[in-house]
Prior knowledge:
Elements: E1 2-5, E2 8-11, E3 14-16, E4 18-22, H1 30-42, E5 47-51, H2 54-57, E6 58-59, E7 62-63, H3 75-84, E8 88-94, E9 130-131, E10 133-134, H4 141-162, E11 169-174, H5 194-208, H6 211-218, H7 240-265, H8 287-294, E12 307-308, H9 318-330, E13 335-339, H10 354-365, E14 370-374, H11 408-428, E15 431-432, E16 436-440, H12 442-448, H13 453-458, H14 467-480, E17 485-489, E18 502-506, H15 513-524, E19 528-532, H16 547-553, E20 561-565, E21 568-573, H17 581-594, E22 602-603, E23 606-611, E24 617-623, E25 630-636, E26 639-645, E27 650-656, E28 659-665, E29 668-669, E30 674-675, E31 679-681, E32 686-689, E33 695-700, E34 703-708, E35 716-722, E36 725-732, E37 736-741
Helix pairs in contact: 5-7, 7-12, 8-12, 8-14, 15-16
Amino acid sequence: xxxxxxxxxxxxxxxxxxxxxxxxxxxxxxxxxxxxxxxxxxxxxxxxxxxxxxxxxxxxxxxxxxxxxxxxxxxxxxxxxxxxxxxxxxxxxxxxxxxxxxxxxxxxxxxxxxxxxxxxxxxxxxxxxxxxxxxxxxxxxxxxxxxxxxxxxxxxxxxxxxxxxxxxxxxxxxxxxxxxxxxxxxxxxxxxxxxxxxxxxxxxxxxxxxxxxxxxxxxxxxxxxxxxxxxxxxxxxxxxxxxxxxxxxxxxxxxxxxxxxxxxxxxxxxxxxxxxxxxxxxxxxxxxxxxxxxxxxxxxxxxxxxxxxxxxxxxxxxxxxxxxxxxxxxxxxxxxxxxxxxxxxxxxxxxxxxxxxxxxxxxxxxxxxxxxxxxxxxxxxxxxxxxxxxxxxxxxxxxxxxxxxxxxxxxxxxxxxxxxxxxxxxxxxxxxxxxxxxxxxxxxxxxxxxxxxxxxxxxxxxxxxxxxxxxxxxxxxxxxxxxxxxxxxxxxxxxxxxxxxxxxxxxxxxxxxxxxxxxxxxxxxxxxxxxxxxxxxxxxxxxxxxxxxxxxxxxxxxxxxxxxxxxxxxxxxxxxxxxxxxxxxxxxxxxxxxxxxxxxxxxxxxxxxxxxxxxxxxxxxxxxxxxxxxxxxxxxxxxxxxxxxxxxxxxxxxxxxxxxxxxxxxxxxxxxxxxxxxxxxxxxxxxxxxxxxxxxxxxxxxxxxxxxxxxxxxxxxxxxxxxxxxxxxxxxxxxxxxxxxx
Length: 742
């Protein structure tokens, strides 16, 4: 049995930490496949992910999965090799895969350029969306028919014969980073095609039921829903009914995305888990709201949350750090693409191991249930049908080169993988203390993505905030004080108090009655609702709805203060606590007053701590963001740790019964030309290497076991004793000298 729950993959009811690497078989020679898979396995990778590009296998009238047209089309053999090596498979059949392939891996015949009967995808200006060629609208019936045929063939030929337990395939991913790697695009970027507008009209009919009701709320006199057209640009707004037009189209974006994932996923008749692969928000004023609105993941049926990178260097870019953190916190799931190989195509700094090492640790610290090395292997053996644009090799700086050579990245990655191989399942049973929860209400992002603040204010209402002047500043404050947080969609279900002791919400002038009732139940059950900015007085259609006001505030206009209700309370402030730096001071004082001290982590680094529920075991993730070598101090409960790290480096420390028991440390930062001998102390034990290195260590029966970032698989152990104190010395011939003082 295999399943996913809360983003964790369970195999035979045992939680698995996903150690995965992508290997684009279609870019490599068949003669290399077995060797590269073996090298990935030796690096402690246990799952191989790969796209199955439609255009690679569908040539003319032939769909080739057995290497008839060219050897590297024999994906059946590739899956067989994975099984023989004891490697599981995450299979990704598209239809659009990106992967730097021509036309995103789609066959040319689905483009409106080659078939005028196919509806092209359009933006608000009526321009055709392109990815090398004109993209088909995902709502076009003929395109959907072709996708169904492709998915059913992949299911019949590849998935069904090879899925767990009789085969190695344990999970699936369809689509890629949205529809066409565009989940974070602006609200007017898609889809204004003819067939999409028809779907929009059907969506409105489902929502409003009758055209009379639509007309009443919108102040229109239309004869049918077929007369409704989406807004495409900002115009002057004179009343709330006109605001509703913008809200409708933004809400449709969420519906559109979830519908396609669910609808296309049903073409594959497999019970294997589907994992999303969502890319991060854009770095623009409304970027968070574009992303939060479109990706209302609770409505993605039969899809498990997952995310990707392609965001910038998080250790050196605050915006990238914050947007990457949002990715990891929006839902629990694995990181399905971490950039370990691209420096020329994306950012030159990725050629240095410390950059992806840091980002991988950050993702897991924030909640990722696994990670993917993209790509584990470099390749240079593809043909022009799959890719005419990329320079060879692809990528340029993977852990394993196109010749099969093992790089410094490989040996550092091996240490990181070994840590999670040994402790990943235990980590999946652990959890970070997250006393704060950010309340997501999608209706606020539906207005936020348009940037309607001034228009709403001109109508006598308080501006509505969700991402900007809301979550963005909340996240900064939480991380500034090393307070972890979670996110919950308050419209989708009740909020359990035991998991979410303090719920933070920037309120707006409207909220549907069901969600208002959810909030009231939360407070009545003992929750602390930190409500700031506004209290809703209208429902989602901008009609009177004052349930929250009546229950909590007695129907009166609320003033700043604490309101007791049932077993809980509401902390209300009329000023937006996240709109300005000075307002955040009040939020901090509220946290200090109402959160127990046990949640506090004191450190000059970015720190997350995951605690096991049944063992006295903690996983301490440390991200050092200083521009200089530093001894970082971490204090939580009765524990005090000191760790010395190079510039902008990272480590993970496993504590057991208050003592250091294992860890992995990045002691060399190649980009910063900063190197430090690993050093960790818990006040009772001290681990100290005498030379700079990347290091994995653990204790077995009181004996320390080491592995360093070196081509030598084994370290030579010698013991010395002085004044009754033992020291273990580890020597890597001609490379480094380590000592552990116990």
